[in-house]
Design brief:
single chain, about 280 residues, alpha/beta, Rossmann fold, eight-stranded mixed sheet, 9 helices, 8 strands, about 20% strand, globular, disordered C terminus, binds S-adenosylmethionine
Length: about 280
Amino acid sequence: MERDYVHGYTGRESTRLVDQATTLADILHHDTVYPAGATVLEAGCGVGAQTVILGANSPGARFVSVDVSDDSLGAARERTERAGLRNVSFQRADIFNLAFLPESFDHVFVCFVLEHLPDPVGALTCLGKVLKPGGTLTVIEGDHGSAYFHPDSPYARKAIQCLVDIQAGMGGDSLIGRRLYPLVSEAGFRDVRVSPRMVYVDSSRPHLVEGFTKNTFTAMVEGVRNEALGLGLIDEDSWEKGIRDLYRTAESDGTFIYTFFKCVAFKGLSANKPLRDRAGF
Ligand SMILES: C[S@@+](CC[C@H](N)C(=O)[O-])C[C@H]1O[C@@H](n2cnc3c(N)ncnc32)[C@H](O)[C@@H]1O
């Protein structure tokens, strides 16, 4: 599993995940608050970048955060301890082989994981099994096709396309944001609602220039340099120009725009019953 994950598990990637989560906390998480007493499964918690935000925003809820990577779980444990959170526990677990009892969680949360999985509907179905009837599923994903910027650059677009192609070659889909509605519906959830979360960056928003344009998005594209060149997807000169042009959008006259997609859906109690008002929200 570990070698099949496009972004890898390096220290730089851990830093990037934390930059991403911290910078986007308000945009992505302001409306995720779980009621006191609720038990929440966070699937694919990585280094705990979202976990610390979830745990702090819902201090009365209990989180069980799982991942397949022991190293990431170790980093996540340290991060939550440093944050002083006592409402999170960690376990090594594979989404496709969860050992939890059926219907044992009130809510399930999954962020930036489905994009890496060859069978996202299968993963959602597995997550649905451990969710109580009436409970919510929250899924957050990006979509690299939603990136546009000024100054525009064919080299930058080509570098991004390298990441899209490499991830697709590994069975993932970095354009998955646009597919959340059909995927979650196909997995049997009800009352599926998707909200686009646009990130707009210009130099009047310096924390987004650093935290998003440079340290989240461009760092992510830079991370596949060796694969892109090794596979012959792009020549070295074009790659360097592409990365240079992505950083160029972070200068004083540049802009960068990207859209995340957040989906909230419910596990049905029984056929065709409206569930939205039954989950304690
Ligand atoms: C891009 S990281 C996202 C981590 C975290 N959710 C965040 O947003 O910062 C994707 C994570 O999913 C984990 N993952 C991938 N496949 C998994 C599976 N089948 N079961 C559990 N975790 C998985 C990876 O190990 C990795 O830590």
